[in-house]
Amino acid sequence: MTTVDVSPAAADADELSVWPASTTPLPCGDLEVGGVPLAQVADRFGTPVYLLDEAEVRERCRLYAHAFPHADIRYTAKAFLCRAMARWVAEEGLGLNVCSASELEVAVAAGVPPDRIVLHGNAKSPHDLEAALRLGVGRITIDSLPEITRLAAAVGPHDEPVKVLVRVVPGISTGLHEKTSTGTGVQKFGLSMTDGSAHHAIARVLAQPELELTGLHCHLGSQITSVRPYLTAVHRLTGLMARLHQSYGFTTRELDLGGGHGIAYRPGEPALDITALARTVRAEVCQGCAAAGLPVPRLIVEPGRAVAGPAGVALCRVLTVKHTGARTFVAVDGGMSDSPRPALHGVRYAPRLVGRLSLAEPTRVTVVGRHCEAGDILASDVPLPGDIRPGDLLAVPAAGAYHLSVASAYSPVGRPPVVAVADGYARQVVRHETFDGLARQDVG
Ligand SMILES: *Cc1c(COP(=O)(O)O)cnc(C)c1O
After folding, report:
1. Residues of the chain with pLDDT under 70
2. Are 174 and 159 in contact (CB under 8 A)?
3. Domain spans, the chain
4. Which of 100, 294, 301, 308 could cross-link 80 (Cys pair, CB 3.0–4.6 Å)?
5. Exposed, middle or buried by CB within 10 Å (0-12, 13-18, 19+), for 408?
6. Do 8-52+310-439 and 68-303 share a fold?
7. pLDDT digits over 46-60, tens only?
8. What's the CA-to-centroid distance between 77 and ligand 1, angstroms?
């Protein structure tokens, strides 16, 4: 028989399961991340502020490298990018996935070797393609028919052919939020396998001497917590590989399975098991290729959220507490401008009081941002100590991905700074976007 540990320490351990591994409770009620107390970060850099635990980012990169020893792992920059982040993932041996000329410039400025960078995008601008060719990215993903001719025309007559992947849509529903599902037939990304457009595009690419097709790419969506959709994708992609081999004698050398690996935002939520994913995907690829008599392609995976998400912590300060009818609204100095995911994707967070010890009974509250929008809700119906009051600090774990990268300068409060913590030191890696800076852009 198993016994359930109901001690406060066990409850804390459970609650801290979605925090960086370095997180340690302090006797004063605060938490330490990367050896730095959160209240100290708030005092020194102001709120709202984002923390990034460097060791957690590196550890997540190593987890992938260990699980996928024969694959290319590319961190997806759109989850979160700054020069420090690009440097850390590159030092851990990962490549980078970008979807704009700006992300590409940041990556190259941080020292990521361009041949380890891939450019994605359903509508790449002439500027994006120019930057990719000028800086010599490793791969460009073809996402539409017009892009084939446009890219081929941009390659100089004496240049080497550009290595490309074709992004195909295997027609798999992940059953997720419609704004995060990208593997089904009806959305703006990629070329459908079910209506023949993928096959057609591949034939066109093969006929372009300026382009060198290295393989296929697919990305099923986001926040997927089961390996099954990936196995279905591999099954369909190896089928396509066999048909391409038959029709054109084309051998797929690279199979890019995208990202979308889900993480837990609240204790008890499921996360995708990366080790199980690696093992089952490799077995499925090997089996599919053996059945079709094809060589096994090199695998590529592109995690974004699963690398950056769990390494980030958002810190904000309570401005007001309001009791309206039966509800208690706790309003903080951040909101949808720096944490857009609740408003955008309908997700909810697990904020926690930090910086002081409270022995008050928990009460259920709704944590809202400071913006004049009814949808500016960070967490609804979550427990916080009953004596929660203005000046208190709230911390939100798993806040490293799709927060700041999607943030806006709404109202314009300006985007918060990012502070990297490691070995007891805190260092600002992205400055606060100030009103002075924003005002300079308004030229009257
Ligand atoms: C966004 C994206 C990813 C990463 O998705 P995550 O959910 O952050 O893992 C990978 N590949 C492509 C093409 C993407 O657009």
Report:
1. 1-11, 175-186
2. no
3. 8-52+310-439, 68-303
4. 308
5. middle
6. no
7. 999 999 999 999 999
8. 9
**Pick from 239, 252, 229, 149: nearest CA to 193:** 239
Which residues lie with the beta carbon below 6 Å from any ligand 1 atom? 76, 78-79, 97, 120, 219, 222, 258-261, 302-306
Instruction: Report whether 316 contacts 45 (CB < 8 A).
Output: no
Distance from the alpha carbon of residue 426 to the mean position of ligand 1, in angstroms: 29
61 as an active site residue: the answer is no
Rounded distance between C-alpha atoms, residue 265 and residue 222, angstroms: 14
Check: pTM over 0.90? Answer yes or no. yes
Pocket test for ligand 1, best of 73, 76, 256, 405 (most atoms within 8 A of CB): 76
Residue for token pair 């009791």 = 323
Closest ligand 1 atom to residue 260 Cα is: 7
Q: How far is the CA of 258 from the centre of ligand 1 (A)?
A: 6
Q: How many CB atoms lie within 10 A of CB 4?
A: 5
CB atoms within 10 A of CB 329: 15
Pocket test for ligand 1, best of 61, 73, 302 (most atoms within 8 A of CB): 302
The CATH code of domain 68-303 reads 3.20.20.10
Q: Minimal CA–CA distance to 310: which of 33, 40, 11? A: 33
**Architecture of domain 8-52+310-439 in this structure:** Beta Barrel (2.40)
* pLDDT one-digit tens code per residue, 232-245: 999 999 999 999 99
